Every structure is written in C-alpha cells, then in structure tokens.
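Inverse folding, one chain.
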C-alpha cells in the first residue's frame, strides 16, 4: 500500500529530525560547555571538580555537586543557569540509569521553573522540557515520575494565559482559555511525540488532542489502526478523535485532522466514491458536520443530523457529543446534564481523569496494559465546561 510507505517515510523523517535536534542540543549543553555559566566564572574550581567526578562516573559526589551548585545559582538569582545545570545533570544521570538522582534533579527543575519570570516559552526551555520528559521515560521502571513531571510542567505553563469569556468565533479567545486550563499546546505536542516514538498510543493520543499538531496526530491514528484495529474500524478511529477535538472547541484542528487522515489512510482512499464522498456514512457525516460548523449554519446542521439519524443512533455517544457541539457552536442548550454516566466518563477520558476508561476500539483494548499517566488534567476537570 502506498500509504504505508508514506507513513513509514513520515515516521523516518520525524525520527531523523528529532534525533538530530537532540544530538545538537545535548552537544550545546554538554558538561564541557557548562564552564560558560556565570557561576563558574567566579568558581572555576567548582566546575573542575564537577567535570572530574562526572568523567570518573562518581555518581554520589556528582549528585552532591549538582545540588550544591544549583543552590548557589539560586542564591545569585541566576535562574537560567540553574535550569541549564539541572538539565545537564538530569541527562547525565538518566544516561547512567541513576533513577533516583535524575528524579531528584527533575523535582528541583520543577521548583526552579516557578521562579522564572519569562512570559512565554522559548525554544531552549521547550527543548529542555521535552528531553527531560523523554529521558525520564527511558530510565524509570514505572511512569510515575514522568507523569508527575508532566503534570507539574503543564500546570506551570497555564500561568502564561488568562481566563476570559469564551467566544467560539474568536480563535484567540479559545486559544487563551484552552491553554489556561490544559497547559501549553507545544508542550503537549512534544510529550505526544515522545509517547508515539515509544508506541504508547494512549498517552500520545491524549497529548495530541491537547496540541495543535493535527498532522502528526492523523498519521499516528493511521498507524494505530493499521497495526491494531479491525479493518472495519478505520472510520471510527477518526470519528472519536474528531468529536473530541470539537468538544474542546478546536474546529481548526478537527478539520485538519479530517483531511489529512482521509488523504493518507489507504482504506479511506479506497472507499472514495467521487471527489467528495465516501462509502463510509461516518466519514460523509463528519465532512458535512465540519462544513456546517465552519459556516455556522444551524439549519443545515439539523438537516444532516436528521438525515443520518439512524446511523447516529447506532452509538449513543455520538448524540451525546453532538449535544455538546450544539451548545458550544450554536449556543443551543442541551437537556439537563447528568453528573455521571457514560458521557461523563467519556469526558473524563478526554481530560485524562478516568482511571479505567472504556476502550474506544479494539486498538485501545489491545493496548490497555500500556503505562497510564493518570489524572493528566492540570485543573482536575470534571468535563470541558470549565472552558466556559
């Protein structure tokens, strides 16, 4: 199949790009380059000692020195130097598989982040966070430490965004409110890529939903279905993700996901009847749904819902998603919301709260033994109404 080749090429290019970025970044932040930090300009012997014990793999003394120098950086209010030092230490200890030392420095990194005065995420810090997240996954026996790191970083990143009145037609309003609740889009994207490379599809899927990289998300869903799904489920993998993007008010990503998935999935391409329609009622409905939402055309929306009513009734969750979509995009209030039940569970799945989520498809059932990053939601969300 041509698309399997396209998918393989996409993954190969992604891994190559990630590998080159990692190599270049770690070279720039190697222990040899730590000597350029301000703290070592006045304490050269301290650097020489750290370099000596690190080269000798004296992990105990290296741990003590990293912590001591970090403390001095904080006393000098050299926050950037403190973060650079800790980043170097975390990579050093994870490479040596010294789990406890790496985790201790990761916690210090989180505490130091809180002292930052920056008002946006720069490329250097973003890459540090991504590589720490990746490294913690390589050396930990469980995912608990990395989950703790992920949650804390995302919560910290919410401080850059203000909660305002949500305006569904104002993209800036949606972006601001969204990241105020869930954390920075780019950090989610980097975590998603890390998990995807590890074939941890459940966690990757969660973070892709909270990022803007719908292209990578589409390719991951294609790979996921081709490797783990039943052939007949090719449209369901798309439908669940697209509905969940829409319940997060992210119409632009939902649209991009739809077209990239349909253009690159071999079974979808094979099912195309003409330039616009498909054999799958699911995919045709999703196309019309996106079109009516973009045009804010409630009359046409109701017509397509009526036309596809028999199909929608095959899965009760579809109508529950549509109730939320009507409320968010057309300001149509749904019936009295229940505090529990199926849809509440679906929303908790979306926000990362459900400890035992109902499997979406056979793929999630097969992957149910994957590491679980519990309670990802940085605001302990009950559902997405908190965005309002």
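Residues assigned per position:
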């Amino acid at each position: 199949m041509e698309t399997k080749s396209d998918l393989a090429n996409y993954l190969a290019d992604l891994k190559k790009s990630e590998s080159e970025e990692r190599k270049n970044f770690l070279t720039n932040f190697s222990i040899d380059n730590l000597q350029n930090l301000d703290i070592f300009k006045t304490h050269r012997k301290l650097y020489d000692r750290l370099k000596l014990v690190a080269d000798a793999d004296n992990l105990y003394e290296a741990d003590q020195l990293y912590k001591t120098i970090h403390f001095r950086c904080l006393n000098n209010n050299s926050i950037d130097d403190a973060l650079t030092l800790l980043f170097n230490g975390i990579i050093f200890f994870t490479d040596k598989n010294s789990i406890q030392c790496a985790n201790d420095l990761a916690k210090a990194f989180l505490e130091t982040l809180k002292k930052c005065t920056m008002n946006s995420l720069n490329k250097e810090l973003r890459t540090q966070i991504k590589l720490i997240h990746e490294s913690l996954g390589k050396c930990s026996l469980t995912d608990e430490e990395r989950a703790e790191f992920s949650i804390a970083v995302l919560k910290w990143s919410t401080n850059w965004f203000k909660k305002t009145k949500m305006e569904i037609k104002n993209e800036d309003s949606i972006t601001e409110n969204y990241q105020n609740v869930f954390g920075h889009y780019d950090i989610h994207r980097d975590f998603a890529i890390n998990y995807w490379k590890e074939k941890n599809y459940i966690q990757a899927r969660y973070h892709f939903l909270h990022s803007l990289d719908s292209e990578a998300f589409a390719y991951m869903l294609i790979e996921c279905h081709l490797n783990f799904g039943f052939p007949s489920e090719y449209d369901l993998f798309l439908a669940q993700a697209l509905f969940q993007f829409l319940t997060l008010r992210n119409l632009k990503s939902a649209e991009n996901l739809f077209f990239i998935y349909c253009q690159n999935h071999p079974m979808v391409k094979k099912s195309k009847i003409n330039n616009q329609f498909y054999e799958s009622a699911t995919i045709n409905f999703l196309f019309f749904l996106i079109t009516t939402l973009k045009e804010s055309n409630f009359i046409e929306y109701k017509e397509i819902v009526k036309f596809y009513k028999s199909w929608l009734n095959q899965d009760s969750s579809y109508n529950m998603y549509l109730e939320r979509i009507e409320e968010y995009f057309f300001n149509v209030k749904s019936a009295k919301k229940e505090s529990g039940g199926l849809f509440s569970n679906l929303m908790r799945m979306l926000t990362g709260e459900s400890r035992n989520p109902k499997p979406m498809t056979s793929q999630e059932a097969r992957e149910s033994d994957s590491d679980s990053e519990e309670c990802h939601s940085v605001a302990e969300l009950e559902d997405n109404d908190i965005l309002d």
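DSSP finds 21 helices and no strands in the chain. Residues 2-28 form the longest helix (27 residues).
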